[in-house]
Amino acid sequence: MKQDRDAARAASRTAIMLRIITALIAALAGLVTLVAGPALADGQRTGSFVFSDWDGPPLRVFFAEPDAPSMDGAPVVFVLHGVNRNADDYARNWEALARTYGLRIYAPEFTNRAFPGAAMYNLGGLGTDGPYAFSAFEPLFEAVMARGGNARGYHLFGHSAGAQVVHRAVLMEDLPHLITAYAANAGWYTLPHGAPTWPYGLGGTDIGEAELRRWLEAPMMLLLGDQDIDPDHENLRRTPEAMAQGPHRYARGAYFAAVGRASARDIGAGFNWQVASVPGVAHDNAGMAEAAAAIIARHPGGFPANP
Questions:
Q1: Terminal CA-to-CA distance of the chain, rounded, Å?
Q2: How far is CA 203 from CA 13, 96, 118, in A?
Q3: What integer is the mean pLDDT of 242-246?
Q4: pLDDT digits over 68-102, tens only?
Q5: Following DSSP, what letter does each residue of 263-294 receive, concatenated?
Q6: Which of 26, 48, 82, 86 ranks highest by number of CB atoms within 10 Å?
Q7: Closest CA to 61 of 3, 147, 160
């Protein structure tokens, strides 16, 4: 009986916590309405190419793009894979969405051989002698533009480990052609204040207030699957610093956004991060891709800044 009562109390606490997190997300930013866009009338090309015109090793890039007549003006989306480095699967998740919404999808593959472990991928290789992953995106955009059509910039989407790349790249790298960054279901975050130390916070780095301000004012959207709440997920980091951000990915995303808003208030910066809770989706790239594609179709030039 005692075990039954304990289990009931734990379930009640979990339900209350999820309600609080959902309310916090809604308060941080208005939930985005996911709407369908126009269907792409022309055909679609899929495949891959090798991108080597940057300072790192050659990257295989999987793509789904319109035929030439529809290339012009189609939104460009870079899709970053998770810990399994399965860029081909991620590109396939986006193929039908690219056709529906008229998008140009490019998924670079950061292999474990060239970018081993979280240090070289999730953290971009900062502080190592290896390749600097965050510097690939601007040269990749130039390579994509050479394939035809035109676009004023690109959207950067990452899921799970890819979302860790996204939110840190926006902090660390000058991305003049970035329209909007989408970080979906990251497992843990670099927090926008001086404690704890890198990579859980900015302590020990030379990042100053100007860089912090630019990060907080950047157009970044946190996409959080409201069912990504498994505290025992096999790839969820459980270091003390990560656990301090919350018991699961949904809670950690809400915490990251709340710390960001507080940091912006502390230094008198704007705060242009937004949060969308994606109903019914757990730790699943395909489900998060559907949400992101709908938002990009609705806001191809970027979403409005927060008031």
A1: 52
A2: 33, 43, 19
A3: 98
A4: 778 889 999 999 999 999 999 999 999 999 999 99
A5: HHHHHT-----EEEEETT--S-HHHHHHHHHH
A6: 82
A7: 147
Length of the chain, in residues: 307
* Close Cβ partners of 220 (under 8 Å, ≥ 6 residues apart): 166, 167, 170, 180, 181, 182, 183, 272, 273, 274
Contact criterion met (CB below 8 Å) for 78 and 137: yes
Q: Is 148 left (phi over 0), alpha (psi -120 to 50) or beta?
A: left
- Six-digit token string for 136: 């690939």
Give 38's pLDDT tier (boundaries 50, 70, 90): very low
Cα–Cα distance, 134 to 131 (Å, whole number): 9
> Quick one: pLDDT band at residue 25, thresholds 50, 70, 90?
low
SS3 180: strand
pLDDT band (50, 70, 90) for residue 226:
very high
Task: Please say whether the beta carbons of 260 and 15 come within 8 A.
Answer: no
Is residue 10 very low, low, confident or very high in pLDDT (cuts 50, 70, 90)?
Answer: very low
> 204 is written with which tokens?
């020990």
The CA distances from residue 253 to 69, 141, 256, 299, in Å, are: 40, 28, 5, 22
Task: Give the Cα separation of 86 and 197 in Å (integer).
Answer: 30
At 115, which helix (H) or strand (E)? none
Q: Tell me if 219 sits within 8 A of 179, measured CB to CB.
A: yes
